Amino acid sequence: MISCGVLAVSPAGATCGSANCFLVTGTQEGVGSKGEITLNLSFRYVVQDRKLEGTHGVREVLTPKVDFENGELEPDHHREIRTQNSLVQLDLAWGVTGRLSLAASLPLLNERDHEHYDDVGTPNESFTRQDGSSGFGDARLGGRYAFLVRTKDLLVGGLTLKLPTGQYRLRDSEGEINEPTIQPGSGSTDLIASAYYAHQWIPVRFEYFVSGSHKWNSENDLDYRFGAESLANAGISYRVRDRWSWSVQLNGRRTAADRYLGDKVPSTGATFVNLTPGVRCYMSTSSSFYFFLQAPVYQDVRDAQLAPRTGLLTGLSKTF
Fold first, then answer.
1. pTM of the predicted model, to two decimals?
2. CB of 309 closer than 8 Å to CB of 21
3. 220-242 residue pLDDT tens
């Protein structure tokens, strides 16, 4: 099978905070032999409770409410406390030829547990943990093509369409449409372009890789548009005999501000840089288990937001 890393794209950060690990897994490779099928089942977990304004810690994070019913933004409506993000995802890839593969990503369970204070500064101010959500997320369909295949070099490009398959109109505890980033889906059809390059050193057990992607988001029928997202990754991996390999990578993510009714939404948009060590166990020539820890090394948010702490990603991969 031709190795071809895939960028793990996470939801754009916004008012109430949502995140997932963004990194090169090395398992959703997918450019293999003709007729080959690869299945990958993964679990991602990130907690957001770091209160930031720009790059500095603050005592509280006040964010606006997106009032879809009345078509307005209510400033400083929420006092954010914590968001716990969990994602169970199934990825599939099928080798059409030795260079071209079709791929699908199915977010089977996109769950967000959220804690905040509502109606800040009013007599109705109250704490709630009932405004989270859970459900099937937005599926992705696309293809990847190996433009360069040499003994020690590989260059792959990909194009993916994100479909609005997840719910995006779920109601909060007050019966109103919940905040956009708490929803399992975005309600928009988006386009993602990606590229990946890998080179093997001498000895061939060493490999380094670089990758990047950009996601263009459209506006949903609630007149909300998530900010465009760019990812950049670089890392090295080393195969330890036949059963184990380790890797370390640096992952960058930048999101633009979201827009509602054409205006920028406060407390959206951020730049994150993470350091991610990982390990993989090869149970056979066609199956492996992997585990990554993603630790923040730089975080810069627009206005005040919740930022993520250390996240984890683990999964199983099987080729048929």
1. 0.92
2. no
3. 999 999 999 999 999 999 988 88
